[in-house]
Amino acid sequence: MKRSLRTIAAFGVAAALAVGASGCAADKQITIAFVMGAESDPFFQAMKVGAEAEAKAEGVKLIWQGDASHYDVATEVPIVDNVIAQKPDGLVLIPTDPDGLQASNDKAIAAGIAVANVDTHVTDLSKVITFITGDNGDGGAKAAKAIADKIGYAAGKTYQVVVGLTSATATTNVARLEGFKAAVAQDYPGIQIMDVAYSAANPQTAASNVNNWLTKYPNLVGIFAIDGTNASGAAAALQAKGLTKKIALVGYDAYPANVELIKSGVFTALIAQDPAAEARLAIKTLVDYIKNKKSPAQRDVVIANVTLDANTSAADLAKYTYVATN
Amino acid sequence: MTDSKQALSVRDRARSLVGNQTSLLIVVMIVLSVVFTAFSNGTFLSTGVFANILTDWGGYILLAVGQTLVVISGGIDLSVGSTVSLSSVVAGFFMVKILGLNSDLKGVDAWGVLALAALVAIATGLVVGAVNAVLINVLKIVPFIATLSTFGAAAGLAIIVSGGMPMQGPSDFSLINPVRIPGIDPAVFDTGLFSPMVLVMIIVTAIVGLFLHKARFGLYTYAIGSNAFAARAAGINVKVHTSKIYLVSGALSGIAGFYAYIRLGSGSPSSGMGMELYAIAATVIGGASLMGGVGRMWGTALGTLILFTVQSGLLMTGVATDWKQIIVAILIAAAVAVQTLQKKNGAR
After folding, report:
1. Chain A hits for B315, Cβ within 8 Å
2. pTM here?
3. What structural domains does chain A harbor?
């Protein structure tokens, strides 16, 4: 009984949708699958908020998938395979590894699924409808500038800084580090990048790395914490050692907790992305492609990163702060 | 070895107290320290570095201690890392969402509420431990699979409770900072090795160690791990005792979750990420056998210390931290090889 009622209801909804969508080529509801890196990462939580809002606005069904906590190619590949088996019309993929996810990416395309890459990308993007990312290289350059401003960079002097990363292969980490290095080489040659270390996505490990650096480099003046996990760990380590404001800490990602710490001076600046905007644009582009077979004018879209610091208005801080889903 | 069976000499007594593996581990620890000191131009050999190592040790030790009990009893607990994430997040949730407090509450003023949060974290760990106990002893699921499911469930729950982001609440970073002996100038001689939290972890480790080696609790644990059938025949309620062990492992993970909260000043859903593997590695390096019945608390404490000596040492010597995994792998293989050799020689 319950089941038949549900079926009738489903038919009703479908009929209403069909009427509403009359004139469109497809009468059935479009399904977009979204496979992201790790549910525990606030970046993807913020992305989920954007994806759900856009799916609702477009009237499409959203399948949100990804490992609970491991940003890892080994856990992502089976998830993508599983999602392909559900035959969605579109797939937004956040590849945790450029080569590791290439086969899954191509398999989806071969199955007739329109694929978008967001944030990170597979090596061969030729059959992907769109690739949307934050400008990570530019974000790295902005971080270099924020550190230089804070330490009062003067030509001819030398300054020691370190960079905390999550992994050596995540393309966003790599792009940010390259942007940071390029800006340092070009504009701030006196800044010496002494070391990099990896947190493996655990903020306690990130804090431990910073602790060890503070002992190893007593003249350290700056830390670039390349993502939210490293930012949390570095902020805790500096607060514990009472080095807040003495060492320029530039983090990435606008976790609410970290945005709070801009006000108290723990963070010199946070470089913020707009993951919700990336997700919205990806879904919109795919739906447009599926309905009208229209490719976007430009395949690669870069959404600029912004610097949040003590001078940022409260309205802008609120705009870029990630929203928790609870 | 030959005369040891005749009479208990002082040396044998000392050996039986700490075990063979322990002296080996101390040697490994010293060798590592010497190598790291040599390759870091001496910077490794400082109070600051050892304080950092102890801070890391404090974060992981209770997971390794719990794992030691579980492993000696012949089981395994994969859920401990996720339990750290979950209990740190629940502690944060309790202070921020239930008590309505925020990060403005700092220092000594926060102690009262932090103590309450510690109890909440322990309770959270106990719940995970209880679920493990039920899955293993009531539903008869093998420990590996049972704790693999709670590993996933706790990680997921940590994200749901926190909304996927760190929950920043009351904090006191001085609890995680090494305490110095007053009157001694740290510039001359730095006495800052142990933070209050690390001291608490040492005390908890010692208490569990006493239960393992000096009380009936430990005797039962070894008996079950050596031969569960014989233990049952000897009148030990195996189900009740293994349930207790998983509860203890859960509670210890809860304390480790509280440690993570204090260390980060926030409850982070990824704060326990990957910790279970280090806990198992530390236990194995410390001489416990995954076959059950073998293991010592001293070994586990040193095994954990060695892991973080390697981590800090590599960073201080400027070797890429990718090497950490390789060195840890070698240590694990060496530890198991030593065990096998000792068994052949009839010693434990």
Report:
1. 195, 197, 209, 212-213, 216
2. 0.84
3. 24-134+274-303 (3.40.50.2300), 136-272 (3.40.50.2300)
